[in-house]
Amino acid sequence: MSAPRRFIPTLQEARSLDAVSRLNSVSAAARELNLSQPTVSYHISKLEERWNAKLFRAKGRNLEPTEFLRAIIPEIRAVTHQLEHIGHLVGSQYHQKVLSIGIAPSLASIVLQPRLDGFLRRSPEINVRICAANRFVNLEEERIDVALRLLPRLHSQEAEVNGNALLPVPQEHMRVVCAPDYLAALTGELQPNGKPDVGLLSQAQLIHEDETVHWANYFAAFLAGHPFETRPRLTFNNADMILQAAISGQGFALLRDVYVMDALGKGCLVEPYASRLPCERVFQFVAPEAIGFTQPASSFVAWFGAELKALLNQA
């Protein structure tokens, strides 16, 4: 005997229910699902109305599932993941042999794009779709097969699979870089002379990344007591623009190893200071939870991971 339709949640309702029960927060669930808070709240309230049951209770500032929800959430979660799995499989068949890669625009333009032809030659049977975005996208909804995300650094430095997240490439640092001509204009020399002059920072224009405190952290770590430029004159919201500004001689930039190694190797940039700031986050490969790493995605991870390691070995 089939259940009345009012007892059957829609996929969106089930996903909202799953997310809120895991995260104990409507706002956190909304961020994860890329939905508005009112939409998630509406899904929950409609289910409570149709099922005539309370699904969550307040616990401090968080929510916790009721006994009713605890009894059914494992089945709801399993069905939700299975439906997402089916949708991804159907999408994969529709876009057969197309590998969709989610990546930050700066990493794509600075590192991936100049090397991508190597992957295409190595895997001619795979067509590549690059999806560059600065926001965290829902991998299933955007049909992303593998993504490279900046996530908190884990303690282990060994590459291994932990669920669907591939542990990071070696630890990165942020380093101060500038164009040789810019350094020459300040010091009369095209290359650092081995005797860093802290006074250079008071003369140089510091190129900032929007909504970050990289320069403040650098000063706190290595230049305590020296004045810090609290009101930046030049700010960009993408690392690729910061890199180009530094190469064109617009000031000192503070950038990750992976973004500057090619330019340093070509002589487009020099490093006036030896002090380097450890990065708090590292790039990690992730795949859709319901699918994991497909064979094409694993091929890309192996290739690009090796490219990143080779690049960082120059650091």
UniProtKB/TrEMBL annotation:
SUPFAM superfamilies, per the entry: Periplasmic binding protein-like II, Winged helix' DNA-binding domain
Assigned keywords, A-Z: DNA-binding, Transcription, Transcription regulation
Biological process (GO) annotations held by this record are:
DNA-templated transcription
Residues of the HTH lysR-type domain: 9-66
Similarity section:
Belongs to the LysR transcriptional regulatory family.
Question: A GO molecular function for this record?
Answer: DNA-binding transcription factor activity
Naturally occurring in which organism (per UniProt): Parasedimentitalea huanghaiensis
Instruction: Fetch the Pfam families from UniProt.
Output: HTH_1 (PF00126), LysR_substrate (PF03466)
**Name of this protein:** LysR family transcriptional regulator
Gene3D superfamilies, per this entry? Periplasmic binding protein-like II, Winged helix-like DNA-binding domain superfamily/Winged helix DNA-binding domain
**Superkingdom of this protein's organism:** Bacteria
